[in-house]
Specification:
Blueprint (H helix, E strand, L loop, with lengths): L1 H18 L17 H17 L15 H17 L1 H4 L2 E4 L2 E4 H23 L8 H14 L2 H4 L15 H8 L10
Helix pairs in contact: 1-3, 1-5, 2-3, 2-5, 5-6, 6-8
Length: about 190
């Protein structure tokens, strides 16, 4: 249940940030080139809803992202949490990049990373400065260490952005994840 617990914790933090985004900020550009804050959230929702289809499951998506981004997020979040809280569905296997994996393993590795980094993207699009908890920064660095160049080769991240050697661990993470830590909405 490690994936379920970790996802729940990160989803709660993500949820708090989504609640703080004003209606007018959803269309602001984000640090992800060519994407608004709403586009980043759409990516998170689409990715999470898509992965469960690989094992024959689905997550209901009845809330329109344009009408209510927070409710749309919560609908997908709750669907994913239901999948992860059931040991049988969390353990369902599928092929990913030529190797067998499970829904729980994918969420633990990739989607938890997504929640960490995309929370920052959306917050920055709204002009908010957030601190990523140290344990999440460390976990995200470990994920990037494990996946290596593949994150760039498959287009899951923009190329790394150079940051100063004395930069904080969070800024180094953001740079590795293709973000300029100093990015701000203009």
């Amino acid at each position: 249940m490690i994936a379920a617990d970790r996802y729940r914790r990160l989803a709660e933090v993500f949820d708090t940030t989504m609640e703080a985004i004003s209606a007018g900020d959803w269309n602001n550009p984000s640090p992800c080139e060519g994407w608004s804050a709403r586009d980043v959230l759409s990516h998170v929702l689409d990715s999470e809803a898509d992965v469960v289809t690989k094992v024959g499951l689905s997550i209901e998506r009845s809330v329109n992202l344009t009408d209510d981004p927070v409710a749309a997020w919560r609908e997908v979040r709750d669907g994913m949490q239901t999948v992860l809280d059931d040991p049988a569905t969390a353990a369902l296997e599928y092929e990913s990049f030529g190797s067998p994996t499970t829904i729980a393993a994918t969420v633990e590795r990739f989607f938890c990373f997504d929640l960490i980094v995309h929370r920052w993207d959306i917050a920055r699009a709204a002009g908010k400065d957030i601190t990523i908890p140290a344990e999440d920064v460390a976990a995200a660095h470990a994920f990037l260490d494990s996946i290596g160049q593949m994150i760039y080769d498959y287009g899951a991240s923009a190329p790394a952005v150079a940051v100063a050697e004395e930069a904080s661990s969070q800024d180094k993470l953001l740079g590795r994840a293709g973000r300029d830590p100093q990015w701000s909405v203009s």
